Amino acid sequence: MATKETSGTTSPPIVELSGVGKSYGNIRALHGVDLTVSPGQVSCVLGDNGAGKSTLIKIISGLHQHSEGEFRIDGEPVRLGSPRDALDRGIATVYQDLATVPLMPVWRNFFLGSELTRGRWPLRRLDIALMKKTADEELRNMGIVLDDLEQPIGSLSGGQRQSVAIARAVHFGARVLILDEPTAALGVKQSGVVLKYIAAARERGLGVIFITHNPHHAYMVGDHFTVLRLGTLELSAARAEVGLEELTHHMAGGAELAALKHELAQVRGVDTDELPSASLGAQ
Amino acid sequence: MTMTQQAASAADAQSAPVPPSTDGRTAQRSPARRLLARPEVGVAVGAIAVFLFFFAVAPTFRQADSMATVLYQASTIGIMALPVALLMIGGEFDLSAGVGVVSSALTASMISYQLTQDVWVGVVVALVFSLAVGAFNGYLLVKTGLPSFLVTLGTFLMLQGLNLAVTKLITGNVATDSISDMNGFNQAKAVFSSDITIAGVSVKITVLWWLVFAALATWVLLRTKYGNWVFAVGGNKESARAVGVPVTFTKITLFMAVGFGAWFVGMHQLFAFDTVQSGEGVGNELLYIAAAVIGGCLLTGGYGSAIGTVIGAFMFGMVTQGIVYADWNPDWFKLFLGVMLLGATLINLWIRRQATRK
């Protein structure tokens, strides 16, 4: 697979975290995490359940505040008070379930909360024609072609719905997109659709933070990989420095994977020779 | 018909030599299927069936005067059913709507009679009172996060108690004193309860108000930001909040709209009968909800229409009066209503499945 070199290394990063941590009371959910996101770069955050991915996203998207380290946007240290704060600085989060209202038409969903109107109050009304046209153009720019913008968004497939949410975030001025497990509930083909739009967003010069626990999905689009384990950095590497197998290995945790392989070897019918090598990460 | 379709498709093929860049997987939904996707189609079909039925079995039903009575009957339910439907689309119920009507009428009547000599003072105070009850419902709902069923059940019981107790305390009776000789009575009656003649048929003015409110509700629902928010807070509250819809504002104002409806119908009752019976109104809240559901509103919120609710209330009026015109025992009315409600719900369910099928 050819590695796509982007301009990410030259332009200054939008989001920069250094040594960021978060404690809830005496529970240290996250500590010592470094992460940078530049325009036109897909930064993947991987980790098993409980690794601290959600905490990290919540800090960047403004839902929680970090309790240690430094969080900079455009080089300026910040503490975000709310998701609105993050949005105003161009950081948009697309949650897996929190994206759309299923029974509403696609174009209404696209502009929900930021509707375009015309006329003066009390006759101020939705500018339906303009909204439909804009939504259609934005979706086409992302490579999403829908036949009927009037269809309820719930009738779209999971991947398409996710893509509409991404296109919406891009339209409303996002510079950094945070995608929280966008492929988790999707099938193989649908995941492919979403990955395509992640690539499209990168082509348009956006920084993308792609949270996933699927190293295969991450490796298809990622420029930089951050693996979290037990609340801290397990791995932080550019694409050139790391292979898929190593990524998978780090993700599962070397020792645990070896133990799992050993256990599987006891079960008849599992061919452990076909599994990724457990010794690779130790090299 | 097939000829015209062929001609149309031929014209399409000629005018668009460059294939439109469509997805290719989803076929354009046929106009018939799109029509079926409208919330009010099911109830419209049902209303036509009920109309034809009573038209056939009850000769009196065919007269224009009878239709005026049916419309009047429908309008008293229909005016309230409209805000109740909007609220339901917004994902909530208001069980206090039925007694709220009587509370408003009692407030206007007693304030006017006891404190002033002008009915308009009572009318304005009643409006403030009804809006406040709505705001109270909405505020409590938003702040506590309790289901609206519980919150408004509480308000329902409180208002019911207040209606009886305060009326007895002040008038010493279960009904208020007649206000028909007070200043402004005739003006107010002209607004809320007069008769107008359309093409030789005397029609209650509430019918006109009903249609005006229905047009307004439709416009707000489909053509304004606020309408978009109503669908959104009912369809998926969390998503709506996440994209910046003012959920609290939308819910509270929806409850206040129900308060406004209760005030209007309450004023109609007051100026139609001069006095108010304090024990009335109980059970009507379910009729409003029934009209909204028959009209295609989804009980769980996020889907429905004002037009459908109008037709739902009209169907209700037809059955109420149709039974009388057909010389049947009116005791059967509630049975009919129940059958209608179930039937409409099943038809709606079926149609929605057909329409949203890909």
Would you give an account of this structure?
The complex is a heterodimer of chains A (283) and B (358). Chain A is 33% helix and 24% strand. Chain A contains 9 helices and 12 strands. In chain A, strand 11 and strand 12 (232-238) form a beta hairpin. In chain A, helix 5 runs parallel beside helix 6 (188-203). Chain B has 358 residues and is mostly helical. Chain B has helices spanning 2-15, 31-36, 41-57, 64-89, 97-115, 119-144, 148-171, 185-193, 205-223, 225-235, 237-242, 247-273, 284-294, 306-325, 333-356, and strands at 195-198, 201-204. Chain B has a two-stranded antiparallel sheet. In chain B, strand 1 and strand 2 form a beta hairpin. In chain B, helix 5 (97-115) runs antiparallel to helix 6 (119-144) and helix 5 (97-115) runs parallel beside helix 7 (148-171). The interface between A and B is medium-sized, with 31 and 29 residues.
Task: Give the helices and strands, then pairings.
The complex is a heterodimer of chains A (283) and B (358).
Chain A: E1 15-24, E2 27-37, E3 42-47, H1 53-60, E4 68-73, E5 76-77, H2 83-88, E6 91-94, H3 106-111, E7 117-118, E8 125-126, H4 128-141, H5 158-171, E9 176-180, H6 188-203, E10 207-212, H7 215-221, E11 224-229, E12 232-238, H8 244-252, H9 254-266
Parallel strand pairs in A: 3-10, 3-11, 6-9, 9-10
Antiparallel strand pairs in A: 1-2, 1-4, 4-5, 7-8, 11-12
Chain B: H1 2-15, H2 31-36, H3 41-57, H4 64-89, H5 97-115, H6 119-144, H7 148-171, H8 185-193, E1 195-198, E2 201-204, H9 205-223, H10 225-235, H11 237-242, H12 247-273, H13 284-294, H14 306-325, H15 333-356
Antiparallel strand pairs in B: 1-2
Helix pairs in contact in B: 3-14, 3-15, 4-9, 4-10, 4-12, 4-13, 4-14, 5-6, 5-7, 5-12, 6-7, 6-12, 8-12, 9-10, 10-12, 13-14, 13-15
Question: What descriptors fit this protein?
Answer:
heterodimer, A: 283 residues, alpha/beta, six-stranded mixed β-sheet, four-stranded antiparallel β-sheet, 24% strand, globular, disordered C terminus, B: 358 residues, mainly alpha, two-stranded antiparallel ribbon, 15 helices, 2 strands, disordered N terminus, Xylose transport system permease protein XylH (chain B), sugar transport (chain B), transmembrane helix (chain B), cell inner membrane (chain B), membrane (chain B)
